[in-house]
Write a structure and sequence with these properties.
The protein has about 230 residues and is α/β, with parallel strands linked by helices. It has a single domain, classed as Rossmann fold, CATH 3.40.50. The protein has helices spanning about 15-30, 45-55, 80-85, 105-115, 170-175, 190-195, and strands at about 5-10, 35, 60-65, 65-70, 95, 125, 150-155, 165-170, 180-185, 215-220. α1 (about 15-30) crosses α2 (about 45-55).
Amino acid sequence: MTLYGVELQVAPGPQEAASRVADELVAAARAGRSVVLTGGTSPGRAYELAAEREPDWSSATLWWGDERCVPPEHEDSNYRLAREHLLDRLGAQPREVQRIRGELGAEAAAGEYDELLRGASLELVLLGIGPDGHAASLFPGRATLEERDRRAIPAEAQLEPFVERVTLTVPTLAAAPLVIFIVTGDKKAEAVERAFARPPDPDAPASLIRSATGRTLVVADEAAAARLPV
């Protein structure tokens, strides 16, 4: 079914949702795409399955949608999540791994990533959704949602862990021809309903992110999709 600018796929549970997203990641890796990864609680299993199904990512390029300003080995690092669940399980590493160097601090890391992204073509963006409706580190009602000139910017956290962050901006995320949201669990049901079954609203930042040129796919398990009109 189609809601507000998205294609919805409802999976029976989190394992099935992860499997569907893994298939999209595998297809992107085999095609040598530029893939934007996410952190959070939902994507880790998808990364594991993608590595099992395709261990050769040598043609792909990896980017990140956001990062906490911590060292790459820190438990809160989105890069560490991807390394443990994806990169360390691969037989052949991606052609490029363009992580956000959060350890530099928000301003310096955002400036560096903004320059790295200049002229880059992001082809698949993977995102989660927070219980408050945020995506990447774009939080409800913040001025970061209005940024249109820069590709990566500093951001303050509104949820734990309360550390500075770097995030891609709304138009940068939306420029990808394929944007995928993965969301699981009943604690996300209200946020999913606000993001995908209502008109765009800065109080639900995920509702503002839609592929400007292609497809926006939401893969949700039944618990997360419970409040959607399906």
